[in-house]
């Protein structure tokens, strides 16, 4: 369960304060899939970053399973992410000096899991890259890199999965594959999936939809199809 | 923990090539430290093993006058008391020898040692023909060094003339106990029987022999006996040395030498460390995204920091181990270099454990200390940068960073002090290094600024080259520092060497005297002058009377010294001086206080003219009275004047004390003479042989040979310093290569864009050559300016030589540095020229 209470974000743009996100309240129940949509610059990615604790909001509280993450120190946030949150980026963000398999192993090694090796291989085959584990990111295509990123996000079996325009940097066919993979994971693992996208079609596959424009919610969270 | 180790190893796998050069620097520094320490420690081990045989006795009592009754009585009574079990007499003196066979010309100065049967108490003298026995020298036999046989074309069985007596060569010495380590000698060693010495006539008046009594004190009271004898003989001009004391003395000197020499290694290491520091800064910048990803998937700042610290630690350790391997390789080759130095005892050169431990410790510490501050940036990387490239807020004052920086600085001073074995030297080295680095940086920055107008040059390549030099993150500073420092060392020592050798050449020039005759007896004066005049076909040489004197008291306005004991307390004044008397002031002297005596005055109060150093150091003034002991006779003389002496010009000999004629009337004295010998080597040999056969007690010092020896020493020293400079320069080159490979990706990208915009490969190559050429020229100029300042300072103030800027060395140095840096820079950047633009741009 994720709860947002009056969460806003203001940054300094030169000497001027610039509000990227106006105060926002909503709740996401466990196991739901929610799509955050809106045009570029509407504050979607910022919101996702706040949910992951990658950045701190200017006001408000964010409760993840009852814990107010805005009160946590940097290192505690890192531990929380390692344990509860998987993140998939538009630009994949794999560590270039590590092979595909090693990229997947990193979160498990940080968590100190003993079965990291075996699980890493299993995750690789789940995303269809069983034979590409020893390749470096630069030797993989965009779609393959994103599949590695998804496997990495799933490594510690987090209850929450955040994806920032996961198909935004891929051609439509490849994007389709990635999307099916993410939704499949969401369904089989019953994990909470929060997607940022400006792809209408993708947004329609979610359970709920939050539309942002200029940092404000255009309407309350709506159930898709209603 | 597994995560940290695994990630560190993975990071090394990805980036070791880029970091390699910096850790080779570490290896060179560690290698120098380990090699130098190991060599000296090996010598020490051998020394401790053989220290008794180095002196051949437990105690050595020496004097350059015959021992007084009091001294011999005291030793006899100690012997009766049983504390001294054996004694043996010996005399060392330098003299001339020549072959008895008139068909073999030439004569040589030698260091003669006459010994009794008990010699040596410890150690063995080894001869090429086997072991020494005293019977070999009995009945006018002599043992000689192989070089004398070669110099005089002699072989075993031939006879040589020593003084008035022929001796037969009965053996060739290969190693000899009782030879002082590193002692300066004017000639090679000859050993004869003590009983035969009087027959040579060399013990007559004026001999410069050192009387020795070797004592065996086997009991535990050695130190006590040695201290007691030293105290009771202190005012008898008698020295007492114990083998243990001299072992300690040499040991201390070796420790000091070890510590100081290994500072050279530390300097190279610190340059490597500065390289590590600057490369780590670039490395962290390049790793920012990876760091953010690690934080995003759950790694805390301290774990990420641990990963990169671990990486540096492993690389530092690898570099240090490589350094130890290098040192081991060098040590394997050492015996063939220093064979001569330690001919008197066996040294097993090898890596010593303390040296290896120190090397590894210092290598790893320096790597870690220099990388920790730049690595702290890791803490500030925010994972949110993966979402958007926002401008990071202006950094607040980073307390941790500054605290750590101070800690690192303190730790480095600590390491320098540890390595130097002294906090004072450690502080001086650190201060000196910081000051030098600061000056080099300042000079470098000024020169970088000075070339900035070239930005507006009409040449595109030159404009780009100059822009690149001033570009941030270009390692310009580190390269300037390392290359500049290397150039500074090499050029500095080269120009000093040039100044020194030129000065010697001037001294040994056309009209300068190049032979010294010493120990001429009063009754030989006329015959000798006539002989030399006939042989050289020049005017008769001037003979200068000399006496040996010690200052035993001063009654002055500023200084009052009542006894020799008090004089000895004034450093330097307690030694024995060679003094003369004459009516006139010499051309190389000038009076700065008081008045020179009338030329024909020989009566009245004894007067002395002193060198101005006594005024400066001892506050002895005109009108003060000084007491001198001249061969047992005490003379009181009034200080009549203070002279400044130009020591460069020694035609008239340089004397600290010159007396008024008449002071020493009737006192035994000898004469010295300087003359210009024939230029032709054969004629010189004939002159020397003729002098020795007619005046066997007279010694001839051939200044040409002495100058050659000194030039050799100067050359060796400057070669050693050049090696140091070359090591520093090498680390500079490695840092350059490292810096290029660190920032190459950016170059490749820029070159691709330029190629796309129509730049030819040739243009890009020209840009690279100009960029590194200008950088090299700046580094070379900085180093050369430093070298000029250094050689000027040392020549002017330490050596008191006229200084010559040696412009050819400066110009060659700057050109060579320019070419070196340009060549290395371009070779390290070949990828920039080779890569095809399309693949590069796609990869970005």
Task: Put the structure in a nutshell.
The complex is a heterodimer of chains A (226) and B (844). Chain A is of the alpha/beta class.
Describe it for me?
The complex is a heterodimer of chains A (226) and B (844). Chain A has 226 residues and is an alpha/beta fold. Chain A has one domain (2-223): P-loop containing nucleotide triphosphate hydrolases (Rossmann fold). Chain A is 34% helix and 27% strand. Chain A contains 7 helices and 11 strands. Chain A has helices spanning 44-51, 74-84, 100-111, 116-126, 142-154, 172-189, 200-203; strands spanning 2-13, 16-28, 33-37, 59-64, 67-68, 85-88, 160-164, 192-196, 208-213, 216-217, 222-223. In chain A, strand 7, helix 6 (172-189) and strand 8 (192-196) form a beta-alpha-beta unit. Chain A is globular and about 50 Å long. The two termini of chain A are 23 Å apart. With 844 residues, chain B is of the alpha+beta class. Chain B folds into 4 domains: 1-52 and 248-390 and 397-421, no CATH class; 53-247, no CATH class; 437-512 and 703-844, no CATH class; 539-675, no CATH class. Chain B contains 23 helices and 22 strands. In chain B, the strands form 2 sheets. A 6-stranded mixed β-barrel of chain B has the order 2-3-9-6-8-7. Chain B is elongated, with a radius of gyration of 34 Å. Chain A binds chain B through residues 11-12, 45-46, 48-49, 52, 54-55, 74-75, 78-79, 81-83, 87, 89, 91, 93-98, 102, 106-107, 109-112, 138, 152, 155-156, 164, and chain B through 2-3, 6-7, 10-11, 13-15, 289-290, 292-303, 382-384, 386-388, 390, 393, 843.
